[in-house]
Please model this.
Amino acid sequence: TLSGGEQQMLAMARALMSRPKLLLMDEPSMGLAPILVESNFEIIKQVNQQGVTIFMVEQNANMALSIANRGYVVQTGRIVLADDARNLLDNEQLRKAYLGR
Model:
């Protein structure tokens, strides 16, 4: 039996086998040991650099924004902020409210 993290990694590998142009990811770090989260995001970054568009929903905003081109903040089902990932990471109010800094 596979752990939750192993199932998550297997699902990502299966999706990549079909060489998609667009990859939808829902919480790709969920269930992964902290040590695997970084390597998982590095793989996602490499896949994106190879031309695959990634659409990701992720609670780990710091990690997601570190590899994203754009980010959206959704609050009670509505987009309340949309910007380049770098601008979102540099937004002091956003950092305090959502990023824990």
User: Anything to note?
Assistant: The chain has a mean pLDDT of 88.
